[in-house]
Predict the structure.
Amino acid sequence: MGLSKKQAQILTFPKSKYLALICDGAVRSGKTSIMALAFVLWLTHDFNQKNFAICGKSVQSAVRNVIQPLLAVRYLPQHGFGLRYSVSNHLLTVTRGKTVNYIYVFGGKDESSAALIQGITLAGVLLDEVALMPQSFVNQALARCSVEGARFWFNCNPDNPQHWFYQDWILKHKEKNARYLHFLMTDNPSLSQETLTRYESLYSGVFYDRYVRGRWVVAEGLIYPMFHADYHVKPTEPRPYDTYKISCDYGTLNPTSMGLWGRSNGVWYRVKEYYHDGRKDGSRTDEEHYEALENLAAGKPIESVIVDPSAASFIETIERHGRFYVSRAENAVVDGIRVTQTALKSGKLFFNDCCEDCIREFGLYRWDEKWPEDRPMKENDHAMDDVRYFCMDAFAHENPGAVWIGGI
């Protein structure tokens, strides 16, 4: 299958006058794979015995999104390229004839990551999912590119319009001497109409605007506008559940919220819940909350209890009793919200009508518009947090749009 016009422009970037290439836009729009191929073709043509870098949110995501697809490209060995990746050194060696270059893989997950890339001299860098990286790491990576002819390669999905990368690079791409290409899913010729329709159905609200329409927009309004009580709320009645889990958001004065989840015919139900507000009803000890956990389980075979990892004392209490396996929750808030939205839209998540506090919070849980980054308001969020912990545990592995598992 041929390339789209936008993809072909990536391949011609090395022949241009530009210092940098920026590709942003929708998920699955075909920008990452072509950029990685163009990166290897460029460095092999223009350099020999030089160091380069490919950076992701983590080393694992860079390997998954960039390195592994590169190793699978048939074009490269067919045209004399040799690619060898060393897992222990995070090093991709690229050869063609007598030309040899070295690509080091780095993860830029937080401010401390900048120290990882110090000291190396680079002839170019590809930053995959750059909007997920701190500015200090990106600046350090660019500063290492001191070889004559070095270039910068960026790709990302959109985020908040106040994001530093949007403000410093996309809005200023002309003064930065950067070529800017904005991608939509229709720029990926490998996607069928059926696939395009499926991806459109996965998202709503701000995530639809960003990951389908490719827009840098502010998160505002209700976080779960796709939740409809007449559809998602079901009668509390017996069902043939084959698996049970419990999720927990723990508080002392703030509410403690726990939900019992049961899977029936491949669909998950919030069967019942425990919700205690320490400010309204008085504080309870860890042992009292544990007793409530036992009552919620009601003797059922619980596969795991998913708990906020910051609730150290309550986790210790559960583990000391030795009945339940504790799974520390994945607490990536925005990723968790996105996975929960997808589960709601796809009809995989329902709530018994006895779960009144959880149902109430769905109608109140909103984005905090005062912050430049995506952040929910810290109110009416305790059942929402435990729902999010459950969804990350149950659904994240099957959600192709969750960028924390690699989704550009």
The mean pLDDT is 93. Residues 31-46 form the longest helix (16 residues). The radius of gyration is 24 Å.
